[in-house]
Amino acid sequence: MAALLPPPHRIYLLRHAEAAWAEPGQRDFDRPLNQKGYGDAEIVADRAADKGYRPDILISSTALRCRDTAEAVHRAMDETLDMRFVDTLYNASVDTYLEIIDAQDVGAVMLVGHNPTMEQALQALIGHEAMASSLPSGFPTSGLAVIDYDASALTWRLIDFVID
């Protein structure tokens, strides 16, 4: 498990929603959400907002499908939500994801990114066994993991997983 220590005390890991297939000549980076993806992103963002989940900062990959997903969260949670778009999250390693989270001096951070790195980050935080029992089929598109730091056990725990 990762040795990140608070802050933050809460981490939200949001995998981008379902993307369209690349058009001829289109870069993978430029693929938007497909129709289902747009709907799923809105549903997950609304469900998270209804549960009172709100990060202090949202950090998203600059890939179009991540930006589209982040915008759904922005609309659902509050137009004043601090959003940042970071190029290095596209094709990043799990260490990069964790370093970006660890560098935030806030109570709650949300990362909007890509698989397999999103799944690897969750596993690094909560451990292989917890990951396997919580998400036996892996980290789905538009899935939102809510992870809290348990100071008494000095560990991160998955407290909720929001899906469409």
Class computed from helices, strands and strand pairing? alpha/beta
> What is the succession of H and E elements?
EHEHEHEHHEE
Q: Unreliable stretches, pLDDT < 50, 5 or more residues?
A: none
Overall 3D shape: globular
For this structure, the CATH topology is Rossmann fold
Per DSSP E runs of 2 or more residues, the count of β-strands stands at 6
CATH superfamily (homologous) name: Phosphoglycerate mutase-like
Q: CATH class, anyone?
A: Alpha Beta
For the termini, the CA-CA separation is: 27 Å
Average pLDDT taken over every residue: 93
Fraction in helix: 25-40%
How large is the share of residues in beta strands? 15-25%
CATH 2nd-level architecture: 3-Layer(aba) Sandwich
Number of helices, where a helix is a run of at least 4 consecutive DSSP H or I residues: 5
Strand order in the largest sheet: 3-2-4-1-5-6
What is Rg?
15 Å
Largest sheet: 6 strands, mixed
Number of domains: 1
Concise synopsis of the structure shown:
With 164 residues, the chain is α/β, with parallel strands linked by helices. It is 34% helix and 23% strand.
Description:
By secondary structure, this protein is an alpha/beta fold. It has one domain: Phosphoglycerate mutase-like (Rossmann fold, 3-Layer(aba) Sandwich), CATH 3.40.50.1240. 34% of the residues lie in helices and 23% in strands. The chain has a 6-stranded mixed β-sheet with strand order 3-2-4-1-5-6, with helices on both faces. This is Histidine phosphatase family protein. Pfam families: His_Phos_1 (PF00300). InterPro entries: His_Pase_superF_clade-1, His_PPase_superfam.
